[in-house]
Amino acid sequence: MIHDVPSLFVFVRFSNSAPRKNGVDFSSTITWNRHSDGLDSVPRKSSLSIMRIIGLSLQVILFASFGIPSASGGVLNTEDTSIPGAISDGKPSLPAPPPVLPDFKIKSTVVRELDVVEPPPMSGLPPVTGTIMETVHLVEDPKLPDPLPPPAPPDDSGAKVHMEDRSDQPRYLFLSATVYDHSRTLLRCQTSGNPGKEITAWSNLDFNCFSGFSTFSVKGNGGEIRSYEMMGMGIGNEDTEKRTALLVQHDRENEGPEIPPIPDGEPAYVIVGDNPDKESVEIVEDLHQLYRNEGQRMKEAYLARIKAEEERRAYLLANPPVPEDRTIHFWERDHPVGMSADTIKKEGGN
Asked: What is the pTM of this model?
């Protein structure tokens, strides 16, 4: 028997009369349905673990930095090797428009003062603390439509075809990079169409410059365009001097990886391992070919992001944020989400 337990909907509005600077708007609205399993449509932060290699005992293959042949033969064509569109330079996005709320009809209101502690706006900064006014309105049911049902699972009954089997489809790239002293990078990457064939390489590039964009393309010698979309990317940084000093304080030896010699200057890399397959080598070469064409723009954007982050940190230290007042609207529904009142009565509800 299905019981007619009213649904509880909540709208939460955070507001502050003092406008935020630097284009940052922290206002938001949250809807919670008591009959659902949890919050829907709430952004979640995710992080990728940076893979490390403690020691390297595998054979390495050094690739020259000038006129590198592509895996399919011939020297790569630099035309059409580029990053489409802009690279993120750390400038704040335009604030989101305020949400359009229903025309609530308030039945009762409770206002209370709360002391709150919120997470810091940036890592390394203190938490946001203060006193806010919380206003809670009990309102009449605004009769909002039910949320859309979740999409149906994909049909896997047919044959599975890798996207890379079609030349007009992008390669979906997964990449992990540990950057040492902003001068050498331990790189691991593979594409979704080449599972189980991860390639490891050392590079003389600072792969911090490979963030701020998600797509790029490289033109091969035969005129083919290889398009990439970076689906997963993790970047970590190691300061070997600080790491060594920290280990000395604890009477431990530096067990960091042994970095092979790579010439400075033009982008170059060393492949780790025996007999890497051609497609995997092509991925590493395409990344370095991209930097040969777009490296100046990539580096300028990276430095701009660092500057913007430092400026924002300085601003927040000089102008500590305060928690925002919030307003909550809640109401009861006569039926759970996804079920009408008539359906409940037909199935035995009261």
From this structure: 0.66
